[in-house]
Amino acid sequence: MPGAIYAEGLVKTFGDVRALDGVDLDVPEGTVLGLLGPNGAGKTTAVRCLTTLLTPDSGRAVVAGIDVLKHPNEVRRSIGLSGQFAAVDEYLTGRENLQMVGQLYQMPARQAKARAAELLDRFSLSDAADRPSKTYSGGMRRRLDLAAALVVSPPVMFMDEPTTGLDPRNRQALWEVIQELVSGGTTLLLTTQYLEEADHLAHDICVIDHGRVIARGTSDQLKAQTGGERVEVVVHDRDRIAAATRILAGFGKGETTVDQHTRKLTVPVTGGAKLLAEVIRELDARGIEIDDIGLRRPTLDDVFISLTGHVAEAEGTNGANGTGADPAAAPAAGGRPAADPAPPDASPAPDAGDRHRKETGR
Amino acid sequence: MSAVSDTARAVRPAGGIRSSVRDSLVVAKRNLIRMTRIPEMVLFGLIQPVMFVVLFTYVFGGSIKVGGSLSTQDYREFLMGGIFAQTVTFATAGAGAGIADDMHKGLIDRFRSLPMARGAVLTGRTLADLVQTALTLLVLALVALLVGWRTDENFAKILAGFGLLLLLGYAFSWIGALIGLSVRTPEAATSGGLIWLFPLTFISNAFVDSNNLPTFFRHIAEWNPFSTTVQACRELFGNLPPGFQTPDAWPMRHPVLASVLWSVLILLVFRTLAVRKYRSATA
C-alpha cells in the first residue's frame, strides 16, 4: 500500500533544465522523510509538484490517498505547506493572517478566529498578534508561517527548508515544534541542506542531486556509506605534524589526511567523544600543542563526495570545506561553532525565480 | 500542547458559487486591510484626479468649444463625465501592480496550496479596488461640486451614472489583472497599466467634443468603449452643453445600453483570460 506521500517517476523540466528527472518517493503514514540536497537539486520543485503548485511533465503522485494530478483541490484540503520564505501578508497582523488562512480552508469565521488565537498562543506570538507581521523578526515570521500551515491540522505536511537562515536558537525551537507535530501522527516531508537536521528529524532520508534520488536510507545507513566520524586536529607547530600524524594513525580506522598549509590532520574514527578525549590526552602527553581539535560528523558535502564523487555544486556561501559554516560539524574544542550560515542562496532552484532572490535579500 | 494534534478540520467542502463568493470576499477584506495600512497609496490615488479636475477646469476651460458653447461653466459640466470615467479606468494600474506584487511573493504559494476558489485571489483584489474607486469617485464628486459642477437631473439618474462608472472601472480592473499577471515586476505593471490608457482616454470625447476631431480620430472616439460611458454619464447627469450635436454612431445614440454592453463584454473576456493566466502562472 502506498504511503501518505507517494511519487512515481516525477519529471519536471524548465526549458533545458531537468529539475526533476524521475523521482520516486514513498513516505509511510506518520513518518518523516528528509529530502536532502544542495540548492538547485530539485527539492523545492519536488515539494511544489506534490503540493499542487506545479504540474509535473510526467509521473504520478498520491498524497493522503488522493491523486494529486486528478484531484488537486481535494489534496489541498489535506496538506499544510510551510516554505523557506514565510508566506504571510506582511501588512496584515499575525492574527489577521491566520484568520484569513482559516477562512480560506473553508472554516466559518468564528472557528477561524478561535483557531487563530489558539495557534498564536501555541507559537508564542500572542504578544505580537495584533502587529503587522512586517514588524516581526525572521524567527517570528517563520513561526507564523508554520502556524498558517497548521490551521487545519493537516494529516500531511510539507516543509521546504524550514530552518534555512534561522539562528541556532530559532532553529532549535522550530525543531521542537516539528518533533511534537510528528509525535501527533502527522506525515511530514521536509527538505533541508543540513544533514544534521535530517538526522535529527527524519526517519528516512532521500539524497537528491540534479533532479535524481542518488541515495536513500536511514541516517545511520547514509553515514555508514559516507565513512562515519573523523577527528580533526590543527597542530600548532608545523614541525610536529609528523609526530601528530603517527599518534592519530594509532586511533584511526583509515588513512590520515594531512594538509601542510593549514596544519590540519583528519582521520576517520569510531568511538565518538570518548575517543576524542583519548586523542587529546595522548597528544598532550607527547607535548604536542594544538590550536584546535574536534570530532567531525559527515556533512552534506561528505555525503555528496562519497555518493557522487563531487563536491555539492551551487554551494556558494556554504563553503565546501566548511567545518565552520556547517551546523553538522561538531563544535571544535575551545570555540563556539562559527556563526550561523547565511541563507545559502547562491543559486536558487530553477523554479525559484525572482521571488527567492528578492526575499532572501532582507 | 494539544493544538497541533487536535481535530481542527476544514469543515465545508470547497467549490460552488457560494464558496467562490466567500473566498473572494475574504481576499477582498485582506486587500482592504492592506490599503488602510498603506494610506499613502489611497491618498495618491485621490490626488491625481483632483489635480486633473483643477487643471482642466482652470487651464482649458474657456478655450475649448463644446457643442456651440465656449462658456467656462458649460465646459466644467461637460468635463466632469470625462474626468470621472478617466479616474475609474486609472484604477487599472493599481490592480495590475497589486497582483504583480502578490505573484512575486511567497504568499501566492500559500493561496495556491489552499482549498479555495481559483479565481478568488483576483476577484478579491478587483473587488477591493472597486471599493477604492467608489471612494475616489465620492471625493472627486465633492471637489467637482466645489469647482462649479452642477447636475439638474434626479437622484436616480445620478446614481445610475455612477453605477455605470463603477461597472466600467470594475471591467477595466480585470484588464489590469491580466497585465499584472503578464509582467515580471509591479513597476512594469504600473507603467504597462497606464501607457495605453492615455491614447484610450484622450482619443475620446472625455475632454473635447468628439465632433471637433479629425474624421479618423472621430470614428475611433465614437466607438471607444470609454467614450460610451462618458456620453452616458453626460446624458444621465444632464451635462450635455447647449447646441451639442449627438454623433450618428450607434454607441453615441444609445450610450447607456452601449456602456453596459461594452463593460460586460470587457469584464467577461478579461476575467476569463486573467483567471486562465493565473491558473497556469507557475505551472
TrEMBL record, chain A:
SUPFAM superfamilies: P-loop containing nucleoside triphosphate hydrolases
Biased composition (Low complexity): 315-339
The organism's place on the tree of life at top rank: Bacteria
GO molecular function, one term: ATP hydrolysis activity
EC annotation from Swiss-Prot or TrEMBL: 7.6.2.2
GO cellular component: plasma membrane
Gene Ontology BP annotations: daunorubicin transport; doxorubicin transport; response to antibiotic
UniProt keyword list: Antibiotic resistance, ATP-binding, Cell membrane, Membrane, Nucleotide-binding, Translocase, Transport
UniProt cross-references to Gene3D superfamilies, sorted A to Z: P-loop containing nucleotide triphosphate hydrolases
Entry similarity comment: Belongs to the ABC transporter superfamily. Drug exporter-1 (DrugE1) (TC 3.A.1.105) family.
Descriptive protein name: ABC-type xenobiotic transporter
The organism of origin for this protein: Streptomyces longispororuber
From TrEMBL, chain B:
Major place of residence: membrane
Family matches, as InterPro entries: ABC2_TM (IPR013525), ABC2_TM_bact-type (IPR047817), ABC_2_transport (IPR000412), Nod_factor_ABC_transporter (IPR051784)
Record localization: Cell membrane; Membrane
Ranges that cross the membrane: 38-58, 78-100, 121-146, 158-181, 188-208, 256-274
Matching PROSITE patterns: ABC_TM2 (PS51012)
Membership in a protein family: Belongs to the ABC-2 integral membrane protein family.
GO cellular component: ATP-binding cassette (ABC) transporter complex
A GO molecular function held by the record: ABC-type transporter activity
Record carries keyword Transport: yes
Membrane topology term: Multi-pass membrane protein
Full protein name: Transport permease protein
A family per Pfam: ABC2_membrane
GO biological process, one term: response to antibiotic
The UniProt record lists the keyword NADP: no
Keywords associated with the record: Antibiotic resistance, Cell membrane, Membrane, Transmembrane, Transmembrane helix, Transport
Organism of origin: Streptomyces longispororuber
Domain ABC transmembrane type-2, chain residue ranges per copy: 40-281
